[in-house]
Design goal:
Shape: elongated
Number of strands: 14
Strand content: 15-25%
Low-confidence stretches: 128-132
Number of domains: 2
Distance between the termini: 44 Å
Helix content: 40-55%
Mean pLDDT: 86
Structural class: alpha/beta
Radius of gyration: 18 Å
Largest sheet: 5 strands, parallel
Number of helices: 8
CATH architecture of the largest domain: 3-Layer(aba) Sandwich
CATH superfamily of the largest domain: Response regulator
Order of helices and strands: EHEHEEEHEHEHEEEEHEHHEE
Length: 233
């Protein structure tokens, strides 16, 4: 079977059309029309990707995403919604969404974005962490398979992008990872990321792994090229 996709869409015509189209693309698709139905499906199906509407008859897609992130951290999230204000977009991305698509949309574009998200997810799923199940990075311990980072007695839930970026730097520690390689593996071309986007993600990771985030020694910048994670001595 193909990747499992959960589609949460309460509009009958949109939901039925998208579900059928995704099935034709080879995806094992479960269409839900309410938040309650989606939460039940998440518990039983553990989908690879959840496509969530925000405005629902029995709640908010944002609440579903928050619940999903705690129940099934490996499930990627894409919002597909008419709620397109900058505040809505920011909130969705802060919840760990891989993409935020505003209605109306083109089905071909949506399918392309789905493929890009699933391709990026393969990196973190195929390259498994070595025993004993976690790695030390700076002052933190990271559990890549669970998307968790522990530091100073606190546990942080990493988003897919944060986890993939950290895994990429760790896998290639001791070598410079260019911004082009980071963009290719962590972001898709249709997201139009800028170098500043990468810098902001690195800054957030540094706050969790660096002994002194203002003077980074674990994830170093290489001017004009990208980033380098130092090898553990």
């Amino acid at each position: 079977m193909g990747h499992k996709i959960l589609l949460l869409e309460d509009e009958l015509n949109v939901g039925s059309t998208l579900a059928e189209r995704m099935k034709l693309e080879g995806y094992e698709t479960r269409w839900c029309s309410s938040a309650a139905e989606a939460l039940s499906a998440i518990e039983s199906d553990h989908p690879d990707l959840a496509i969530l509407d925000v405005q629902l008859p029995d709640g908010s897609g944002f609440d579903v995403a928050r619940n999903l992130r705690s129940r099934s951290p490996r499930t990627a999230i894409v919002f597909l919604t008419a709620a397109g204000t900058p505040e809505d977009r920011i909130h969705g991305l802060e919840l760990g969404a891989e993409d935020y698509i505003v209605k109306p949309f083109h089905t071909k574009e949506l399918l392309l974005r789905i493929r890009n998200v699933l391709k990026r997810m393969e990196y973190i799923r195929e390259v498994r962490e070595p025993a004993p199940g976690s790695v030390g990075i700076g002052r933190a311990r990271v559990h890549f398979q669970e998307y968790l980072l522990e530091e100073s007695g606190q546990t942080h839930r990493l988003s897919h992008k944060e986890c993939t970026l950290l895994k990429l730097l760790h896998d290639k520690r001791g070598s410079v990872v260019s911004r082009d390689e980071i963009l290719d593996l962590v972001w898709s071309e249709d997201e139009y990321p800028t170098p500043r986007t990468i810098d902001n993600f690195v800054m957030r990771l540094r706050k969790m792994v660096e002994p002194d985030p203002e003077n980074p020694t674990v994830i170093r910048s290489v001017r004009g090229v990208g980033y380098l994670m130092e090898k553990t001595k």
